[in-house]
């Protein structure tokens, strides 16, 4: 699939490493790719569909959950006193967009994990 590539760095300081759920897809943004576009590619990759067919295959658009322009603005503004992470719940999935240039789609909690 074309689109923003996975960021090979695994430590962004957002606590994903301690999450008990698996990262299903990860995309980087920047260099001409806005966070909202990277989010669409990450979501469709995690849910195994083509970005062009997302509306018909999945029955929703990113705009159903967040204003893409607002998302882009929130995570790309200069944050002098901290960091910004936006999280969206898509059914049992979590989409995490951080101002570090990374979008992650995190899957459902493992039902066979230590808390079950």
From TrEMBL:
Region (Disordered): 1-33
All copies of domain Halobacterial output, residue ranges: 33-105
Composition-biased stretches (Acidic residues): 8-20
Protein's name in the database: Halobacterial output domain-containing protein
Organism, as annotated: Natrinema salifodinae
